[in-house]
Design goal:
Length: 197
């Protein structure tokens, strides 16, 4: 297993000092990652929210807690996943990050992908999906489907899923409900990893 810890620590230090876009002026903390540095599955979300900005950890607000709840309910362990975002600083009022902000942050995200080297990259929500999937589609149509994309000279598997903040509007777990489909997608992604091992 490749020890990438030192290189990721160096990247974290760079991100903490970053002033490449306007988000650096309003952040409390940069939000780099959580999870296992050698995980087979990498989750990429949209941007940090208020809780994330305060703690420096991704996906720990209400939506993040729901994501983690469903991960553990569907059999994931901490070593199975690594979590990051398209941008490392919170956009004011939790607005969507602008393209220029995502572009400024993209080299950091690309380096994370290179160092973690996941087998599958899960794009959490439409903003993360739009950063990698250029085909005209919606998250409803694309969720749970595999998109093969070349990045850093290698072909990688990308799978979009609903953002857990979308699930907060729905409480039903009946078949075909958003929460049901979300769990189905997590189970499917886990099965793909099992089949590759």
């Amino acid at each position: 297993m490749k020890d990438n810890t030192q290189q990721l620590e160096e990247l974290i230090s760079k991100v903490k000092l970053c002033e490449k876009c306007e988000l650096s002026k309003t952040r409390t903390k940069t939000v780099f990652s959580d999870g296992c540095n050698n995980a087979p599955i990498m989750f990429i979300g949209e941007a940090p929210g208020k809780n994330e900005d305060e703690t420096g950890l991704p996906f720990i607000g209400r939506a993040g807690q729901l994501l983690r709840k469903y991960l553990f309910e569907t059999g994931y362990k901490q070593e199975d996943f690594y979590i990051a975002n398209t941008v490392k600083c919170r956009p004011p009022e939790n607005r969507k990050p602008f393209n220029k902000e995502k572009e400024a942050c993209y080299p950091y995200l690309e380096k994370q992908i290179e160092l973690v080297n996941p087998k599958i990259i899960v794009l959490v929500g439409s903003t993360a999906m739009e950063s990698f999937i250029k085909e005209k589609t919606t998250i409803t149509k694309a969720r749970g489907k595999i998109f093969e994309k070349k990045i850093l000279g290698a072909s990688r598997k990308f799978i979009p899923i609903f953002h857990p903040s979308y699930l907060l509007r729905y409480h039903s777990i009946e078949p075909e409900s958003p929460r049901y489909l979300f769990k189905e997608d997590l189970i499917y992604i886990k099965s793909l990893i099992k089949n590759e091992n």
